[in-house]
Amino acid sequence: MRVRLLASLAALVLGAMTTAFAAPPPQAAKAPEPAVAKQEKVLRYAFLVAETGFDPAQLSDLYSRIVTAHIFESLYNYDYLARPFKLKPNTAAEMPEVSEDFRTWTIKIRPGIYFADDPAFKGKRRELTAEDYVYSLKRFYDPATKGPLYSSFKQEGILGLEELRVAALETKKPFNYDKPVEGVRALDRYTLQFKLAEPRPRFIYNLAGGDTYGAVAREVIETYAGKTMEHPVGTGPFMLERWRRGSLIRLVKNPGYRDVFYDAQPNPGDTEGEQMLARFKGRKLPMVDAVEVSIIEAGQPRWLSYLNREFDLLFLLPEEYADVAIPHGKLAPNLDKLGMKLYRVLASDRTMYYFNMEDPTVGGYTPDKVALRRAIGLATDVPTEIATARRHQAVPAQSVVAPATWGYQEEFKSENSDFDLARAKALLDTYGYVDKDGDGWRDKPDGSPLVLEVASTPDSRSKPYDELWKRDMDKLGVQIKIRMAQWPENLKSARAGQLMIWQLGFNSSTPDAQLGLELLYGPAAGGQNLGRFKLERYDEIYRRMMVLPDGPERAELLREAQKLLTAYMPQKFRVHRIVTDIAQPWLVGYRRPFFNQIFWPYVDIETDKLPKR
User: Fold this and answer.
1) Which residues pair with residue 97 across a beta bridge?
2) Is 611 among the domain residues?
3) Which of 167, 189, 328, 433: CA 20 to 30 A from 295?
């Protein structure tokens, strides 16, 4: 064996020497190098609340709307870099032509925009037309759709649509999509016109953002009747490829998406925005190939998954990790050394709990019921909530008006932000909410037990707020029961008027205060007005503000509305959140939107910096 091994080694050496000194062979044609597969650019991050589906007409929750905003397209969009906002045409060819009385809006649509391919189109390439926006708007009025945003569109007074809805309800026949109405018409293939009963100076906000009034195709809705929440087909930059409900949403770049290139207008002096524009201007959008969104409700696994480089973006830092990640509001040194980037902004939102105004315990407009709600509000220790549960990532809310929206004044102060346990107890004593049976808990004036039932969700994110509020109510002497259910189930119950009290947040989707005011508008009860508050003077103010242009008269009405809400306390506004996002070093171009949810097309993944996953 050893001899054969030595002989083999000798032969190898001799062969190598012969090859080295022999004449070179004729040059052969160089074989082509095998193609190297391009690495897929995938944006990975997590939602902290489960989605409900992807049909724009059936949605109101934020996280589902983030997805639909990237599938369906609105006529106008918000400039990605401008702050706080700037509107620009999207599928519209130009800004709208508006009559002097703000009642007629005429819009030209860009030709050559196509829906993503789908079997519903039977092999044909389907172009977007004005008629698609007519049909999409009518869907909000169809009783069968059960659209939660119907009430929002109803307030706009679009001529003829409400009559179509009433006819369907009264005759119990299907909604007549084929009947023309004056309020929304396709004047020709690419011209859309709206006619309104009253002036609507800010009607354009309804036509922007994509997450609500995005164009759907009638063929798709009819093909997937009853399953439209899981079959979204739009003209936008992304398509739904895979969906595991409440677990994973994967979208891929729409191969039929038209040529759209990075172009934006940062404000003068916005150094970061100007740098982003210089870096990306002219790049074709979207820049990533796919987006994968996981659903991780608990803060700890979301935080650890990000640190483990499983996600490119930590979308909304869990508040319990604020001291670790952003001590004193700055990125922690260890994260900074890794090249991570910090994004912080005072969000255009408000958190609150609402009272069901039809509930026999906390609802009603008599002095004793008003006193009960105001006492509960005064006993809610928002300063401690901000300092402990929120780790100083919020500011007290004074009213329904959110930061960055018209009418917001940083210096405005109301009782809504007061924490005063002594006043709260005095109010309850005055109106007969005292302990009548000696069990240590306050009773109703009639002697029956006073028990508050608060809806919540069984997750670690909600737990500290539930515990704080129970502690606050214990100090007030009021019993509290926590009713647990998943968020989508709570939303369904809320719309049906089945919850007594629910704590939740509301993000502004337009730069105007009016959308926030709709949360308390009487005719929107069962829709956006989950608490079913109905007050004639408030509703008058709401309607008057709808027709007025921005100015002193409208601002004065807004202040009166704020005072009425503070006095009747149908909602306790708690905080405006400071939202913090953190990005890995290979994610570039990120900037959190204010009023729409669109950012996926504008970010890029530098694959050469990616860790091995």
Assistant:
1) 106
2) no
3) 328
In a domain, 9, yes or no: no
- Residues 299 and 320 sit within 8 Å (Cβ to Cβ): yes
Phi, psi of 103 (to 5 degrees): -110, -15
> Alpha-carbon distance 523 to 532, whole Å?
9
CB 443 within 8 A of CB 450: yes
Do 222 and 366 fall into the same domain?
A: no
Lowest mean pLDDT, pick from 28-32, 54-58, 167-171: 28-32
Nearby residues of 41 by Cβ (< 8 Å), 6 or more positions away? 287, 288, 289, 290, 604, 605, 607
For the ranges 3-12, 21-30, 531-540, the one whose mean pLDDT is highest? 531-540
CA 191 distance to own-chain centroid: 29
Instruction: Tell me how far the alpha carbon of residue 305 is from its chain's centroid.
Output: 23
From residue 96, alpha-carbon distances to 100, 106, 144, 154, 213 in Å are 12, 6, 31, 21, 16
Residue of 384, 362, 387, 385 lying closest to 375 (CA atoms): 362
Domain edge (last residue) among 211, 231, 251: 231
Cα–Cα nearest to 74, from 193, 205, 195, 202: 205
Token look-up 């934020």 returns: 62
Domain end, chosen from 212, 231, 250, is at 231
Rounded-to-integer distance, Cα 228 and Cα 574, Å: 36
CB 366 within 8 A of CB 360: no
524-582 pLDDT tens trace: 998 889 999 999 999 999 999 999 999 999 999 999 999 999 999 999 999 999 999 99
In the numeric block, the tokens 């996981």 are attached to 294
Say what the pTM is: 0.85
- Whole domain around residue 119: which residue ranges? 56-231
- Report the amino acid identity of residue 347: A
Q: What is the CATH number of the domain that holds 188?
A: 3.90.76.10
Distance separating alpha carbons of residues 612 and 389, to the nearest angstrom: 35
Give me the residue label for tokens 């119990």.
172
Give SS3 for 379. Answer: coil
- 193 and 61 both lie in a single domain: yes
Q: Is 410 left (phi over 0), alpha (psi -120 to 50) or beta?
A: alpha
**Peptide bond between residue 84 and the one before it cis (omega within 30 degrees of 0):** yes
Strand partners, 92: 109
- Return d(Cα 32, Cα 36) in angstroms, integer: 12
- Altogether, the residues listed in the chain come to a count of 613
Q: Are 204 and 148 in contact (CB under 8 A)?
A: no
How many domains does the chain fold into?
Answer: 2
